[in-house]
Specification:
By secondary structure, the chain is an alpha+beta fold. The protein has helices at residues 3-19, 23-26, 45-56, and strands spanning 30-36, 62-72, 75-84, 87-98, 101-111. Helices cover 27% and strands 41% of the residues.
């Protein structure tokens, strides 16, 4: 498996671990000296990991459906449907890899409205 395909696999595996409440396992895929860009947590992957662990019990029912995984060089984007009862979101995660580990992470998402007017859907 080449680096691009391996990075795609790692990005999806990271998200699956988070949703399946395996946060420590997810962070084994991360360069802990890297960066995340969440505005909700202090800088550093340790702070993000701690925040995810603290919030994990608040949303016990989570479901992740991966719709697209796009990769080029050391960057991977994953477009997902994230069901966090009682609400659902469409989210794009962007991962930057270094030496086979997640080195930088961005995410942006939107809530899925109850009524979707676009016949083509969100996904």
């Amino acid at each position: 498996m080449n680096n691009v395909e391996n990075n795609k696999k790692i990005a999806v595996q990271f998200l699956e671990h988070i949703v399946n409440r395996k946060i420590d396992e997810a962070y084994q895929l991360v360069n802990m000296d890297g960066k995340h860009h969440s505005p909700f947590y202090p800088a550093g992957f340790s702070a993000l990991q701690k925040g995810m662990k603290e919030n994990d019990g608040n949303i016990p029912e989570k479901k992740l459906t991966v719709h697209q995984v796009i990769a080029e060089d050391n960057m991977v984007s994953v477009f997902v449907h994230l069901a966090l009862k009682p609400y659902e979101m469409a989210v794009v995660y962007i991962f930057k890899f270094k030496d086979g580990k997640i080195d930088e992470l961005w995410d942006c998402g939107m809530s899925i409205p109850e009524e979707i007017k676009n016949k083509d859907g969100i996904f």
